[in-house]
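Q: I'm teaching a short session on how sequence maps to structure, and I want students to see two examples side by side rather than one. Could you give me a first protein with its sequence written out and its structure tokens following it? Keep the formatting plain so it prints cleanly on a handout.
A: Of course. Example one:
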Amino acid sequence: MLNLLAFDYGASSGRAMLGKFDGNRLELSEIHRFANEPVMVGDSLYWDILRLFHEMKQGILKCAAGGCKDMASIGIDTWGVDFGLLDSAGKLLGNPYHYRDGNTGGMIEEVCRIVPGREIYARTGIAFQVFNSLYQIFSMKFYKSPLLEKASTMLFTPDLLRYFLTGEKSCEYTIASTSQMLDAYTRTWAVDLLDKLGIPQNILTGIIDAGTIAGKLASGVAGELGIGQIPVVAVAEHDTGSAVVSVPAVEGRYAFLSSGTWSLLGVESAVPFINDSIFNLNYTNEGGYNKTTRLLKNIMGLWIYQECKRTWDKSGEAVSFDELEQGAANSEAFTSFIDPDDSSFFSPGKMPVKVQEYCRKTGQKIPETKPQIVRCIMESFAMTYRETLEGLEKVIGYTLPVLHIVGGGCKNTMLSQFTANAISRPVITGPVEATATGNLMAQLLALGEVKSLNEGRLIIRGSFPTAEYSPENKAGWDAAYERFLNVRKR
């Protein structure tokens, strides 16, 4: 039995997941879970990166204490775009900014005054999001940040945590691709773009492929934890990249949806898709395992639903997710819709009111009760998935007969059924622990225990349960979809 350890950091929590592999079947167990809460200081929002590293060490200690001191390897995946800066001595220069911090406000416009947006997209293939690393680093230059002036190295969040473990500095391809600073074709830094924007290139490290053994525990870390110098694998370090590794597909053509705080809906491709139509759709070309491209749309996901529940909980009206979804299932269908990607839903706080306000300003019936609000949100997600899927098919030129949903959103059976209804094709859900599963599979591939990604996906399919949802009430959903599109135009 081979023991491996995956660290999966999400936007609100992190886990250490132990993987056990017997050559045919992969088993997962959670050995350590911890909060990942950003910290507001003044008017800036930061990640508490040292606490996150401390929790990583606690996870390793728990794994060792549980009889798995002989870990074959460790891998780390996190959210995209955010980064830390090191000085010339390798010391961290302050806590990394959170992608929801306001420091990038207006930076897309400032950047595009220097380099036209179409030119940036033609080089990087990355959709324009205000939190992209390009605008974060440009903001530091724009406001003459002393941290940037002192910086010698820039490392994305999983690369930074890996550096803390190993002392080795490098950027893994899938996480680097989220930055909008990478050439989509050469998979190297877009140096001429960075030159035009005055972004220093000396802070950038070499880029390594997903599935590379990128070092081993530094002697100091190993000594502190009382374990050996375990290999550390640069897995597909962007959490969506790891989630896609876990898709248990046997079909030749399919779409994937990584469902969690964000919804990432797309396809895997050997080459990027970059043209004016895709630019106008704001689809993105992120890096994937085996140097593939994940052509996808980044959609505001269960964040909206989660924020609604947080608001109700704080106000003393706590209701479980199961109760909310049961109530929503019994509520009237298709009474109102939201655009999940509307900017009003990006920031935390008062989310139920924001949903109601959107319906009010678009002239729709206003959902009043919790179940009505949840039903509105879930139907809107499903309709957005349909719009995105149909847009993908126009871009790639072929149909996608099945949608695989992976990640925590799989547990929402109502949304899975609504999605099948909306897209009029089968939906297969699972695994739920998609990012950790993909993280562990990349480690097995790096160690040579699994020979190919196809073999790995067959192992995943045989190791974890899946569920299939067939479409229902096509006529009703088709009619409602036209109403949804009209609401989006208002």
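Q: Perfect. Now a second example for contrast.
A: Example two:
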Amino acid sequence: MSHIPAPIAGVIWKMLVNEGDEVHADDEVAILESMKMEIPITAEQNGFVAEVVKKQGEFVNSGDILIKLR
């Protein structure tokens, strides 16, 4: 199982995937808002979303796991 971490601290502005969704490398999976900027979060590899760990509107720290892939 792999995971997608937050690159920096911020708020999850929009979660673009749900559990069970298939994702491909470079697909946008979430948008993080930090310092009034929107930062797209992309998958680094192909897989299926096993768990959405953090929810839309939630504050995250750098390195927090946002999504688990299988």
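Q: What should students look for in example two?
A: Point them to this: Strands lie at 2-5, 10-15, 22-23, 28-34, 37-42, 47-52, 59-60, 65-69. Also worth mentioning: The longest strand covers residues 28-34.
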